[in-house]
């Protein structure tokens, strides 16, 4: 059981905010452990391919191989207040994690066991937090970036419902309604967990954050009062089946490019046709090639891309 004391000032400063990195880390945990989400299913080939990239090596070492257990809170910093681009702002906070906080969280993660080689090397060079932020950014681009607007719409709907609840019934009723494992008795927030922890949140700010990909669990991040976040499953729950399975599998942008590659096209042509930056097109084509969905052939000075038989099967299916 986690017991968090909330004084009047903390209650007055409690706010709701969406945390993209929290959902991203939930998806990463599933991919690392080879597990499935109860609603969204398998993280998919894009996530598995991303895990092989060198820029994710340090990040994946921080995630328990089973997908269960403590993940350093530095990977899911409190969403900044009043910022439009939470992803970029949160990544900056990851990279700027103070050394003292980093040391405490690594001790929580590994205990007395030696640090993994890559983590130890990054820590010694002073690059651990920067490497973690770079890995999160890479995994974001490969997995959630294209589908985030759809997930975000569901989270926004949850925030609107919570705002109505708070306006009608007050903060106490709203806290007690977050999840069946969360209870509020007027001065303590109690969260059912298989361990004991006491977290005084006095004169600080608590962020309540809806999540789609951590569903149906509650994620408590209450050890550091300055970074206090309680993640709860968004209501209503996300749809069981996405409207377009191909979009869900490879991402909206990559699915659009794949559908346009029934004939061979160059990066420049695709960039013009879909109003995308050439670098963006090149990035998505590389992912599709790694997945065996696109081939590349050189025609004089041009590199031409065309979808494979496997991609045709995927689109037909």
From TrEMBL:
Record's signal peptide: none
Keywords: DNA-binding, Transcription, Transcription regulation
Pfam families, alphabetized: HTH_20
Transcription as UniProt keyword: yes
PANTHER family noted in UniProt: ARSENICAL RESISTANCE OPERON REPRESSOR ARSR-RELATED, HTH-TYPE TRANSCRIPTIONAL REPRESSOR CZRA
Protein name: ArsR/SmtB family transcription factor
């Amino acid at each position: 059981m986690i017991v968090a004391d909330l004084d009047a000032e903390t209650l007055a400063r409690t706010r709701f905010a969406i945390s993209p990195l929290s959902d991203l880390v939930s998806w990463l945990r599933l991919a690392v452990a080879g597990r499935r989400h109860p609603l969204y299913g398998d993280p998919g080939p894009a996530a598995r391919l991303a895990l092989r990239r060198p820029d994710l090596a340090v990040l994946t070492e921080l995630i328990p191989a089973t997908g269960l257990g403590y993940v350093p809170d530095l990977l899911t910093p409190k969403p900044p207040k009043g910022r439009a681009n939470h992803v970029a702002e949160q990544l900056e906070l990851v990279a700027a994690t103070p050394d003292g906080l980093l040391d405490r969280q690594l001790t929580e993660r590994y205990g007395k066991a030696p640090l993994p080689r890559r983590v130890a090397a990054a820590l010694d060079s002073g690059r651990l937090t920067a490497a973690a932020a770079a890995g999160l950014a890479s995994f974001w681009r490969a997995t959630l970036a294209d589908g985030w607007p759809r997930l975000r719409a569901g989270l926004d709907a949850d925030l609107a419902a919570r705002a109505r609840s708070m306006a009608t019934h007050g903060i106490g009723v709203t806290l007690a309604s977050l999840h069946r494992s969360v209870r509020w008795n007027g001065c303590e927030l109690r969260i059912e967990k298989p361990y004991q922890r006491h977290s005084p949140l006095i004169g600080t700010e608590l962020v309540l954050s809806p999540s789609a990909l951590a569903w149906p669990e509650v994620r408590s991040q209450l050890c550091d009062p300055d970074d206090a976040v309680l993640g709860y499953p968004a209501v209503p729950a996300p749809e069981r089946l996405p409207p377009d399975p191909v979009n869900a599998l490879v991402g909206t942008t990559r699915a659009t490019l794949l559908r346009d590659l029934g004939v061979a096209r160059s990066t420049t042509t695709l960039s013009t046709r879909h109003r995308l930056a050439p670098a963006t097109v090149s990035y998505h084509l590389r992912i599709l090639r790694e997945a065996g969905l696109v081939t590349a052939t050189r025609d004089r000075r041009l590199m031409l891309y065309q979808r494979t038989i496997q991609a045709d099967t995927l689109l037909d299916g």
